[in-house]
Amino acid sequence: MKKLSFILLAFLVIIMVGFSAGTKEQKPAPTDRVYNLRLATVVAPPHPWIEMAEYFARELGAKTDGKVKVSIHHSSTLGNDATILDETRAGTIDFVIGGTQNAAQFVPEYQVFGLSYLFNSQEHFEKAIAFGGKIFNHYAKLHEDKKLNLKLLALAGGGTRNASSNLKHFITPDDLKGIKMRLPGSPIEAKLWSALGALPTSLPWNEIYSAVQTGVVNAFESTISGFYGSKLYEVAPYMSRTEHLYMLTHFTMGQSTWDKLPENYRKMILEVAPKAGVLGTEKGKEFDEKLLKDMQDKFGLKVAAVQKPAFVAKVAPLHDELAANAKASDVLAMIREIK
Fold first, then answer.
1. CATH number assigned to the domain with residue range 36-106+134-158+249-286, chosen from the 4 options 1.20.58.1000, 3.40.190.170, 3.30.565.10, 3.40.190.10
2. What's the CA gap between 153 and 13, in Å, rounded?
3. Which of 8, 90, 117, 168 has the greatest number of C-beta atoms within 10 Å?
């Protein structure tokens, strides 16, 4: 009987020790140390993404009394979009600001934002991507559900996207027939530009200049800021104001970086990042007009208006089918509901 009592007592002790260990609170991350974090983007200044990054780094540093220092690495110095996202997932890069189409390899539902002429106006676009809105929350949850080790902080604009070439302007879709065109790695965009007559080629952003220069491609589409920062006016003197897309930007951080930061610093990130996103949207609009004029005046860039209804007529009928292919029909419906 004594032996049985001893065994029961020992068993209870083991259970209690195990329960205590399992419920022991994790030691909070220290706030007295300095966190040196890296933010990467592929574009070169001047660009709305870099304005976003600088604002974020400055404001977060001030709020944390210099305990969180964010260094900015632009111009693809830490790799192309795919590399940067991989490194952010691995925790060797902490933040990334980039285009959602280049993040579609991890979140295919982002492809819906590659549908040309998706939004009715700049105001429609800004309402759709607002922090805390249905669409933002939808994508933030997708990041979590897919277990990507990535945390979405904000969505932002970045200006309108236009088609450029070293050969000619594209006033109507007929002008695109047989044109070798660089596109990001989004199947939706490839199908849309194919419907317009172009021959799509997927290339990283930092290879566009040499690809046009050597004739690998003769056209591409980009924001005006990206075009200016990468000096693409040197190899592509014709810009057609297709304005087919409002550039959608994602501001994302690695989940492992988020997890290692103190709770109060996480709250500060959530305060500053959405404001950086709004700044990026505003700078995109501002830079579009200023930089376009600069390139026309200083570098002789030839800019032409296009017959937008002709382009819309070709691509709008494809929206529902392509959104369904990207498993984003629900997002398309959300966008259409916004007034």
1. 3.40.190.170
2. 45
3. 117
